[in-house]
């Protein structure tokens, strides 16, 4: 049998995890924030183009708290244009009611974290590694239980 206690949520505010709060003024930007969480927590392993919009965003917000990062994102015209372009580039018609919600799951310092800008901070799910991350995420029903109100299409 599966032991759900292993996956009980633990709220943590950790300096080592790059996290952005999804404030109301950012609107329906969960996809953009999930991507920023993914890149922000991989900056030590990837190279961003020097002085690009992403490079400057992460450098300027590195020492900020999640709310300050959200305020910078809110005022970043380049990021807003990129978000609008990406949102309108798809083939799917966008309705008035958005049912999808995107979050980022990342392995950092051998620990699996859920990064959902709608929550108060990173959520620690337990031991993991980049090698075992896909194995952990393959247990889809467990992850769906963690976000029961949303249809997390990004995890299907």
Automatic annotation (TrEMBL):
<dbReference type="Pfam" id="PF01088">
    <property type="entry name" value="Peptidase_C12"/>
</dbReference>
<keyword id="KW-0645">Protease</keyword>
<comment type="similarity">
    <text>Belongs to the peptidase C12 family.</text>
</comment>
<dbReference type="GO" id="GO:0006511">
    <property type="term" value="P:ubiquitin-dependent protein catabolic process"/>
</dbReference>
<dbReference type="InterPro" id="IPR038765">
    <property type="entry name" value="Papain-like_cys_pep_sf"/>
</dbReference>
<feature type="site" description="Important for enzyme activity">
    <location>
        <position position="116"/>
    </location>
</feature>
<feature type="site" description="Transition state stabilizer">
    <location>
        <position position="22"/>
    </location>
</feature>
<dbReference type="GO" id="GO:0016579">
    <property type="term" value="P:protein deubiquitination"/>
</dbReference>
<feature type="domain" description="UCH catalytic">
    <location>
        <begin position="1"/>
        <end position="156"/>
    </location>
</feature>
<dbReference type="GO" id="GO:0004843">
    <property type="term" value="F:cysteine-type deubiquitinase activity"/>
</dbReference>
<keyword id="KW-0378">Hydrolase</keyword>
<keyword id="KW-0833">Ubl conjugation pathway</keyword>
<dbReference type="InterPro" id="IPR001578">
    <property type="entry name" value="Peptidase_C12_UCH"/>
</dbReference>
<keyword id="KW-0788">Thiol protease</keyword>
<dbReference type="InterPro" id="IPR036959">
    <property type="entry name" value="Peptidase_C12_UCH_sf"/>
</dbReference>
<protein>
    <recommendedName>
        <fullName>Ubiquitin carboxyl-terminal hydrolase</fullName>
        <ecNumber>3.4.19.12</ecNumber>
    </recommendedName>
</protein>
<dbReference type="GO" id="GO:0005737">
    <property type="term" value="C:cytoplasm"/>
</dbReference>
<feature type="active site" description="Proton donor">
    <location>
        <position position="101"/>
    </location>
</feature>
<feature type="active site" description="Nucleophile">
    <location>
        <position position="30"/>
    </location>
</feature>
């Amino acid at each position: 049998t599966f032991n759900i206690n292993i996956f009980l949520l633990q709220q943590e505010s950790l300096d080592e995890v790059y996290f952005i709060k999804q404030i109301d003024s950012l609107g329906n930007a969960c996809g953009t924030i999930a991507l920023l969480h993914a890149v922000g927590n991989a900056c030590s392993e990837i190279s961003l183009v020097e002085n690009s919009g992403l490079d400057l965003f992460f450098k300027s917000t590195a020492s900020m708290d999640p709310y300050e990062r959200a305020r910078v994102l809110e005022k970043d015209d380049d990021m807003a244009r990129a978000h609008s372009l990406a949102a309108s580039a798809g083939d799917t018609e966008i309705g008035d009611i958005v049912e999808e919600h995107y979050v980022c799951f990342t392995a950092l310092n051998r620990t699996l974290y859920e990064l959902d800008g709608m929550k108060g901070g990173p959520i620690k799910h337990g031991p993991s590694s980049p090698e075992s991350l896909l194995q952990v995420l393959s247990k889809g029903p467990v992850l769906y239980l963690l976000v029961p109100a949303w249809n997390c299409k990004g995890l299907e």
